[in-house]
Structures are given as C-alpha cells and as structure tokens.
Amino acid sequence: MGMTRAYGERPGRPSLAAVTGGQALTQWSAGIDRGARGNAKSRALVMLWVLFFLAAIGVAILGRLYFLRQSKDIIASKSIELAAVRDLKIEQIREWRAGMLRDGEVLAGDPTLRDEIIRWTANPSDPAITSTMRDWMALMVDKGEYSSVSITSADGSQRISTSGAASSTPSALAASRAARASGEVTLTDLSLDPETGRPTLSVVAPLKANTGQTTAVVVLNRDPEQFLFPILQKWPSPSPSSETLLIRRDGDAILYLNDLRFKSDTALKSKLPLTNSSLLAIQALTGPPRVTEGVDYRGVPVFGALGRVEGTPWYLIAKVNRSEAFAGVLESQISTFLAAGVVLAIIALGLAVAWRQRAVEYYRGRLDIERSEQLLSQQYDQLVRYANDAVLLTDEQANIVQANVRAVALYGYSADELLAMSLDELLAPEQAQPEVPPLSEPPEAEGRVLEIRQLHKNGELIYAETSMQRIETDGEPRYLTITRDVTERKVAEDALRQTTAYLENLFDYANAPIIVWDPQRHITRFNHAFERLTAMEAEEVLGKDLSVLFPEATREESLDLIATATEGEHWETVEIPIRRADGSVRTALWNSANVYDGAGDLLATIAQGQDITDRKLAEDALQHSEERFRNIVNSSPAAIYLYRLEPHDRLVLTAANPSSDIVIGIDHDDLIGKTIEEAFPALVGTDIPDMYRAVARGDLGSQSFEVPYGDARFSGYYAVTAFQTAAGLVAVDFVDISDRKRAEEALRERTEDLARSNAELEKFAYIASHDLQEPLRMVASYTQLLQRRYQGKLDQDADEFIAYAVDGAMRMQTLINELLVYSRVGTQGSPFVETDLDEVLGRVLEVLSISIAENEALITVDPMPTLSCDPIQMGQVFQNLLTNAMKFHGDEPPRIHVGAKHVDAEWVFSVQDNGIGVEPEYFDRIFVIFQRLQSRADYPGTGMGLAICKRIIERHSGRIWVESKQGSGSTFYFTLRD
Amino acid sequence: MTARPETAPIEILLVEDNPGDVRLTQEVLKEGRIRNTLNVVGDGAEALDFLHRRGVHANAKPQDLILLDLNLPKLNGREVLAEIKSDPLLRHVPVVVLTTSSAEADVLSAYDLHANCYITKPVDLDQFVRVVRSIEDFWLAIVRLPGDDS
To answer: Is B38 strand, coil or helix?
Structure first.
C-alpha cells in the first residue's frame, strides 16, 4: 500500500522540477502560437455582434411583454365600462316596464273605474257615462305617459278609445284576448302602430266584476320615443361611436327595436338574417351575457357588451367601434416600440466603445508578451542547460531529441548516446510503468509527476521523480521530462519506513499494554494489549483525557502519579488501577518514559503496563485459603499428617494436627522431623510411602483408600486420603473407621447368612414340596383306591380310618402344592414384560367362571392398565384375591369390584367384596404363610393364598394391604409401579 | 371314516418310573371303556428304544398313545417329548404329559414341544379316574383324525 502510494502519481504535490517546467512551457507555447492571434480578433468581433443581437432580442421580448400587459389592461377597463353601461340600461328598462305593469295593476284593481266601466258596458250609448269615461281616459293621456288609452268590453262588442281609431296594434289585440282569459295584467312587445306607423308598447289590464268575470280590458299604449329610445341613445361619456341597441329574434332574423345611430328610421323595420355569426347582435342571442368583439349592422368591427332584458324577448347591446375602444392600445404599442429602439441604440453604442478599448489593450499586450517571450526563451535555455534536474525532450515515440548536462551526468550516457535512445530504455526493467501516460494523451495543465525507477548506464538503480509535460515546439508535438534523482532520499525513506513499521508492529502487537499521551494528558496511542486490558476500543479513547482510564475511587491519586511522570519522573514500577469498559478494575504495574523534541520540550509520555490483577487475586486467595486450611486442619477430627519430600526422596513428617494424637494414639511431637518409614515402621515394605511421594510430586492426584493398619503402638481400620497441598507437600488424612468396618463386616456376614438360609429354605421348600408329593400322592391315591374298592366291604371302623387317611393325605397334598407355589415366586418367576392387565384379569375370570356361577357372584371390573410385570404371577394375584372374595362371603351372594386407579407414580388396584370382613388386628397376619382366621370346616383352604399374593407383589416392588370392617366386607389393595 | 374294529385293543405306552403310579394307571385303565394294551417303560431312554423298536424292544408294536411322565431317570420327559416330536414317524402319535407339577412354566414348556395334552397327576383318585376318562375321550376324538390309517 505504502509503496504504491510512494511511486504513484502525485498531481497535488508538484516538485520544484514540475513547477519550473510547467511555467516555462506555458510561456513557450504562448510564443509558438502566434498564428492563432488574428483569429482571436475576429472571434471577439463576432462575440460582440452576438452580444448585441442577444440584447436586441431581450429588448424585443421585454417590449412585447410590456405591450401585451398594457393592451390587456386597456381591454379589461373597456370591458368593464361597456358591461357597466349595459347593466345600467337593462336596469332602467326593467324599471320602466315595472312602472307600466304597476299602472296596469292599479287600473285593474280600481273599484271606481270598474264600476264606471260596468255601467258603461251596460249602457254604452249613455252620453253621460261615455263622457265620464272619455274624461278619465284623457286624464291618463294628459299625464303624458301614455299616447292613447282604449277600453274594450269583455265580449269585444264595445270599444272606446282616446285616439278615435277603431284599431289597435296586433300584439295589443292578442294581449287583450289573453288578458280576458287569464285576468292578468300584461305588457305587449314593441310593435308598429298600424295607424301612426310608430313603434308602440301597450299595457293590457283586464277589469273584473265582483263575480270575477272580466268585464272589460283597458289598453294603455306607450310611445317608446318618449322614454325608452332616449334612454338607449344616451351614453355616459362622450364617444364618437358608442351606441346601445335593443334587439329581439324575429323568426330567422334579428329585429332592431330602436332607431340606430348610424342608420335612420330603423326601429322595428331593420332586420338582418341569423346567418352572419360574427354579427354582435346574433352573438347576443346565442350566448350568455358577456363582453366580446364582432361586427355591427354596418359591418364595422366593434367591441360590445351583450345582455338580456329579463322577462322580455329583448337583448341589449352596448357597443363601441373597435377602433375607438382600442385606440389606447395602439398608442401603447407605438410608445413601447420607440422605447425599445432607444435602449438598443444605447447598448450598441456601449459595445462599440468597449470594442475599441479592447483593441487598444490587445495591441499593447502583444508588445509586452513578445518582449517577455524573448527574455524567457533565453532564460529557459540557461535553465535547461544548467538545471539541477535532468531535462529530456522526446518526440511522440519517446525518442530523446534533446538532453541537458545534468541528464548526461545522471544516466552516465553521453549526449550523443542519449539522443540515440528512447525514454523507455532508461526505465528499470522490473519496473512496470503503468503511470506513464501514452504520449498521444492531451497534455494536462499541471503535467504529471511520477515516481519511477530508472537505470544508470552502469546498471545502478535510480529512483527518479519525473514530471512530464506535453508541449509543442515549432508545431511538433514533444514531451518534456524533467527528472530529479531521489535515490538517496528514497533509500532513507525506505529505511525509515521499515523502522517505523517495525516499531508500529512492536507497539501494536506487544503483549504488554502500552499507551502514549501528550503533555495535555490526551491519549494519542493505545495498543491492542491495552484494548484487551480495558475492553475499550482505541477509537473510543484516542484524544480523550487519561482520566477515563481510572476508576473513580483512585482517579485523583492516579492523576497525581501521571503528573509526576509528565514532569519528568521516570517510573520503574508504579501500581495504577485501570477501569475496564464494564466498570471492573484491573491492577497493573507501570513504567514510563518521556519523549522530548529537539528543543527539549516534552512531546509525549509513553507507559507500559503489566496486568497483575490475577496475580494479586491469586495471592489474596492463597493467603485466605492457607488460613482456612490451617483452621480446618487444626479443628478436624481426622488425623492429618503433613509430609515434605526432601532430597534423596526422603519423605519427612513436618506437621500434624492435634487430632492425630487421639486418632493414631501417638504424640505427634515424637513424630515430627522423622521420615515416614521412621515414624511408622509398619509401612516399610508396603507401597504406601511411594504412593505419598508420587502425590507430593504431583505425579498422582489425590488418593483415597481404606486400610487396616497398625503396629505395636496402635491398630485399626482407617479411611485415608492423601493429597498434594503444594509442590513437594502431601497431606495425609486418617479417619478411624474400625468400628464401622466391624459393623459392616458383621452386617455383610449376617446378610450372607440370611441369603444363604433363604436360598436353602427356598430350595428346601421346593424339594420338600416336590419330592414329598410323590409319596404323598401314593398314600392318597391308594387310600382312595382302598376306599373305592373296599368301602362297606370291611367294617365301619375301617371305612372311617380310610376316610381320615384320605382327607389327611389330600390336605397335605394341597399344602405342599401351595408351598411349592410360594417358594417359586422368588426363584422361578418370569421376567417382567409389558402386560395388558385387562387380558390377564379376563383370563382369570374365565378360569373362575364355574366358581363364579356356583357362588352366584357378581363381579364388576374397571378398565385395567398395561404395565410391566410378570403376567402369570399377576394372574395368580387376581385369582387368589377373587377366590378369597368369593369364598369368604356372608349370607348375601358375593358382590365384587375390581378397581384400578392411577395415584402419583403408581397404580393402586383394589378388590372389594361384601363378605365377612377382617378384624383390624388381623390385617397383617392374614398375609403370613399358613395363617388362617377361619375354621377349616367353614372355609376350607391352606391360608397360603394371601401370602403368595404378598410375595408376588413384593417381587414387583409394590405393597399389598387390606382395609375392612368385620361383617361389612373387605377391600384388598395392592400397588404396581408405572 | 372307518371306525377301529372293536376287537383290536389300542396300544398305550406309559413312560413312568414310579411303580405306584404305574399300578394306579393300570388299575384305572382296567375300569375304562376302551380295550387297551398298556406297555410300561421306566425311563426316557427306554421309552425311545421302545418307540424306535430298538434292542430288547425290537419287536415292539407301534404305539397309539403315549402317557409321559416329565420326571424320569436318564432322559427326562421333555427330552423324550422333543425327540418324539422331531421324528417324522412318531410325530403323529398323541402324547399326554403326566406330571405332579402344576406350575404353569412346566405346562408352557411342554406345549412348546407340542404335547397334545397335559395332565397333572391328581392326588384325588376320583380326579385321576376323570383324567383317564378324558384321555379316553381324547383318544376317541383322535382316532377320527385323518391320516391315522393303522
């Protein structure tokens, strides 16, 4: 890693050679590049033009944006104005119409007028009534609002009018008819009066009689010239082209309702077809109220507000010529354009001035450059020739084309030799040179600084620091390499690096914890052993104050010690506790040394420690343990001797405890200092002393044994333990177990006797029962044969004697059989196997089926488990217990329940009967061999059954017992393990 | 099925060392319903000689039924039974094991050797008579078995 970096590219740290070469080259290339200068001037001119055009475009865009904003504002304000005019007029028209409707309502609701008219209709020819009517109608006309009034009777037969004319407008007639039907006051549309040829609008008011019947219709005709048209013509401000139009649709055409400003006599006469959609009037009919552009009836472009008069088929247009409306926009356009022109002219002027100024500076600068180039060229030649660095100039193929004095000296080749060589030939062969850039690569501004190895002509290795720069001389691409011999420095660096690496490793991997801190007590180095000691990572503690390493309790004290080291004291072994990351404390011994700089100022203090925690703990523990050991030894009831192994294998008794005087019976003062053989001559010839020696040496671990031991002074049986207390020391501990041994011996003999007698007994029982059976059977069989053949053929006494003989023989037979079974329980049982006790019990019940039937017994059975046992013997237990339960029944037929219950880790079986029961004092005795409680006459049997059961259950490690009350049945329990 | 002619007594081999039992068996068989010839040998080795018609028993007749005591001098009853049941010529001869032992272990080991029947010698004479009757019944059943052509 370090090597790669050392020889790698170092653009950030150019050497002196690189800097010098780089500057020279920049100047040099400036001199070579003269041809390019003329082009630069025209390029600048082009730049100037570009700048001007960019400015012009900018001004144009800004001007345009300003103009657009202006026109938008103008149009918006015009739109608001037109809309306001439109809304004003529509409102006036609405109020005018409402006023007329009110007039009609008043007429229609006037009871006096109604009565008059009723009277008139009843007597149309009455001059008085007619005169009254005419007076009233004249009054209406005189008020000036209505041009004429007419009243028509409901059936239309009578009519009276102020105008004298018989006719009315068609729309008024239509309205009259409608009013008669509906009884509502209505307004007619504008229409031409057939009589006057003038536009007229009528109020039609029906008059109702009390019955609700319309009796007559009053029609008030209104001349729009009087109010409506003047209102429409008026404009709030002076304007040469503004105009308000009232229009409505008339079939496929637009009908203009008022007189037009630019066309005379048009009211209700001028029509235009609906086809021209740019016509403002048509736009008014087809869309919502708005302000928009279009053409008017003259075909002139106009700008107008369109609206509808609510409650009528009328639309209203407030318009003005587009030219008038947008006059402000045009002005704004012109002024913007002029302003832009002025701005552009100023920019152009500025640029022209700048251009002129630059040209002057350029020529002045060129003169300076030429002068300095000349000077530099001379300096360069000097520099290259006498430079302290080797300077080589190569062509693109790395062939050397120029070499300076220093190069000749560095490489040992003559100048001519060098000029015949390539740069590559100077490279050390083992050195791969990946960092040398291909010459075709474009030159870099600061060049490259490489560390490479080259060869002297004599083959010596040269460590070289080389800067390379691509240049051009007279249009030829060249490489300038400036090389400095850094061999000495390199060798020194390598040596330093090795030493440093060695020291670093020594520091880092030393087994002893090492730490370095600066005069401000900041930790600056922290090795691996220290990390292990403290369980802290170096990263955690570096830069921190030393105090982080000390436990709270001893921190002050430790820091005082640190101060002594920092002040120059050289520790040899100072004990300083160190706090671990988990808070535990390690004790270490420290030595220290200070490191000073050249001026004698303290740079750092280095300390190396030795962890003595374990040793301290061990020392403490040892001390503690020795004390305890001594206490134990002195208070122990056992005799304890301590022997030391001395030269020539002498095992010398060095100590003994007070108990030894009692246990062994020899005052230990008489023994101390003697060898084991001297102290205890009886041991001579045994392997015990050698065993102790082996234990003392540590070749053998602790030894325990029991041994009969003694001589003229004492004798006994001892339990002995020999153990090493320290290297070369063996402690021997004696406990007198003579009594125990005697007791054990006696017990063992008794047990053996018992086992032997038991075995003999069993054997005897078996042999007896088996071998006795043969002669018995002979006796029994032949007495029976006698009875069979000779019963009643001899005298009565003979019969009786034979009967007793037969009975005795048979009982004897049974007893022996039972005894045989009993003796076989322990000796000839089957191995235990997993047994389904349901099956066993089932088989027993089958065997007993005849007996059950004879006794009329009722037996119920719980589900039985499967257990490991001897199936034959368990069958026998069930059979015996059930047989007993049936046998010892009272007056009642036997009721028996066989139960099984899992309790703790065993099964408890029970056989419960309702028989005669057992008195508590016999609970144990009934399980004893041949024990009977009942007379043979009442309950025949050998008394062996329960004894056999007990033996079988005991063989199965179970218990058997009875719970009973005399006269109320018994329950026999036995247990079997899982 | 052809019934055995009434006139031909069945041949019974009693292997028994106790003369009391021998006499008793003779006495009881005498009272029985089936005509028989009771051949008696006193130990297991002789029993095999008799069955194999060897030595002094070279002229012995084939036996129809064997009554075998288990406790015998020389070869015991189990060995005799094993020998009989491994001999193809003797295998079909029914064997009734007689013993004083009622221990089931004996019973099982005898049945392992394919004894046809197992009877504990009873101390009660009446019982013994019943046993012999049952042997007779057993016999009557056996003679009807196929393959018995003698």
So the answer is: strand
d(CA A790, CA A479) in angstroms, rounded, equals: 156
Chain A residues 803-842 within an 8 A CB cutoff of chain B: 809-810, 813, 817, 820-821, 824, 828, 830
- Rounded to whole angstroms, the Cα distance separating A876 from A820 reads 14
Does A609 or A629 have the greater pLDDT score?
Answer: A609
Q: Do B103 and A782 touch (CB under 8 A)?
A: no
Orientation angle between helical segments B44-52 and B77-86, nearest 10 degrees: 20
**For A183, phi and psi rounded to 5 degrees?**
75, 15
Query: Is B130 an interface residue toward A (CB < 8 Å)?
Result: no
Q: Least CB-CB distance to B123: which of A809, A821, A872?
A: A809
Q: What is the mean pLDDT of residues A894-913?
A: 91
Q: What share of chain B is helix, strand, coil (3-state, %, to 5)?
A: 40, 15, 40
Interface A-B, measured as beta-carbon pairs within 8 A, has a size of 47
Give the total residue count for chain B.
Answer: 150
Among B21, B101, B124, whose Cβ lies nearest the Cβ of A784? Answer: B124
Written as six digits, the tokens of A51 are 């700048």
pLDDT tens-digit readout, A121-160: 777 778 888 888 888 788 777 776 788 888 887 777 777 8
Residue contact A781–B103, C-beta within 8 A: no
User: Is residue A383 left, alpha or beta, with left meaning phi > 0 and alpha meaning psi from -120 to 50?
Assistant: alpha
φ, ψ of residue A240 to 5 degrees: the values are -70, -20
Is residue B105 less than 8 Å (CB to CB) from chain A? yes
A768 near A816, Cβ under 8 Å? yes
User: Is A873 at the interface with chain B, CB within 8 A?
Assistant: no
Per DSSP, the residues of A161-214 read ESS--S---HHHHHHHHHHHHH---EEPPPEE-TTT-SEEEEEEEEEE-TTS-E
- Adjacent-strand bridge partners of A316: A246, A307
**Cβ-Cβ contacts under 8 Å for A70 (sequence gap 6 or more):** A329, A332, A336
Residue of chain A with shortest Cα separation from B124: A781
Judging contacts by C-beta atoms under 8 Å, the chain B residues touching residue A774 are: 18, 100
Please tell me if residue B147 touches chain A, with a CB cutoff of 8 Å. no
Q: Nearest 10 degrees: CA dihedral of A363, A367, A372, A375?
A: 160
Q: Which of B21, B25, B100 should one mutate to test binding to chain A, selecting the residue with the greatest count of A CBs within 10 A?
A: B100
Judge whether residue A839 has pLDDT over 60.
yes
- Tell me which residue of A902, A830, A893 sits closest to A864, measured CA to CA: A902
Please tell me what DSSP assigns to residue A675.
B
* Cα–Cα distance measured from residue A495 to residue A501, given in angstroms and rounded to the nearest whole number: 10
Cβ atoms within 10 Å of A435's Cβ, excluding its own: 16
User: Are residues A828 and B24, on separate chains, in Cβ contact within 8 Å?
Assistant: no
Instruction: Tell me the one-letter amino acid at A49.
Output: W
Q: What angle do CA A106, A112, A117 make, to 5 degrees?
A: 95
Do A976 and A867 form a contact (C-beta atoms < 8 A)? yes
Q: What is the 3-state secondary structure (H, E, C) of A267-330?
A: CCCCEEECCCCCEHHHHHHHCCCEEEEEECCCCCEEEEEEEECCCCCCEEEEEEEHHHHCHHHH
Q: Which two tokens stand for residue B63?
A: 């036996």
pLDDT tens digits for range A330-344: 888 888 888 888 988
Residue B6 has pLDDT above 70, yes or no: no
